[in-house]
Every structure is written in C-alpha cells, then in structure tokens.
Design a protein that fits this description.
It contains twelve helices and four strands, in the order ααααααββααααββαα. The chain is mainly α.
Length: 204
Amino acid sequence: MSTITEEFRAQTLLESEADYAALECAVRELLIEKGVFSEADFWARLDKLERTDHTIGAKLVARAWRDEAFRRLLVADPKEAAWQLLGMRLPEHPEIAVLENDSRVHHVIVCTLCSCYPKAVLGLPPQWYKSFGYRARMVAEPRAVLAQFGTGLPEDVELRVVDSTADLRYLVLPLPPAGIEALTEEETVARVSRDMMIGVRVAG
C-alpha cells in the first residue's frame, strides 16, 4: 500500500491532537451528564467501531462488481443490500448513499465541516480524512489532491467532490478492475481497498 503524502502527514501533526481529545472528552461528559447515553454505552459503541474495518464495504462492492442485480440494489438501497448479503442491519441514522463511478464520472468523498464518514461500512476514518489539509484542498483542487494519492484521471472524466453530512454519508462504488471474473469472491473482496470506497484511489 502506498503511503499517505508527507504534506497530509505534516498537516495532521500540525493540528493539535490534544485539543481534539480535550474537546471530545468535554462533549462526551456533557452528553453523559444530560442522559443522552451512559458511559457504558459510549465505551461499548467505541469498542464496536474499533473492531469494524472496511471489510463490510468491500464485501458489498465485490458482490456488486460480480452481480448486476445486486449492483442495482446496492445503488438503490444500500441498507437493504447489506441485509440481503450479510444479514446485518445498518443503523437507521444516518442515511447512506452509494455513489457509482463509471467511465465518465468519478466521485470522491469529503466532509468539509468535520469528519462525517460511513463508519458502519468502513470503520473509523483515517487521520488524513479528518485533516484540515484534505478537507480544504479536496474542494479547491481535487485533481491535485488525487494526484498525491497516485490517482490520475483523464481530463474527460468529470470529478465530483461530494460533501458528507451528519445526516447523510456516502460510499463510493468504484469501477471494477479488469479480470475479476477469474477471481473468487474472497479474492475480489481483497481487491477492494478503503481508499477506493472514499474515492481517492481507483482499482488497479
């Protein structure tokens, strides 16, 4: 796996993790005090998130690459697709939408205000996704940012930067790589990376 650019790493280091930790702690303690959730609920949820990675999303994408009917279902109703394929109920809130890439349009996800992210299918977001550098520059100069991830798109491909919100998260359905028909489903899942489902990389 190629490394994140030094610029994104430097930006992440410049943003004080101590400040974020203090803010998170203050908000968490306030919500517990107000009875929004209990401390036990918080730690149970955090434990579940930390044990979730991008495999759920990868399984959805891999099946969509191999099954046209499932692809249509995933785009139309990702929560129902997750239930049918994996027997799992995704949370009612937030909503999740699937952005399908094709030969003419490429989608990439960002959250300009904070770090809203489809955790239910991708796990916790990478540090660079939360960094101010990524959030600001992806909107201002998306092709330059993608180039730093090693992703070059033809000029005739429209690049759409889609902003996640607290109420609506996105999963990118990337174009499949050549030759997946010769792979097993497990091998296909292994070809799907987290970064493809954010939109900063393409299937190779």
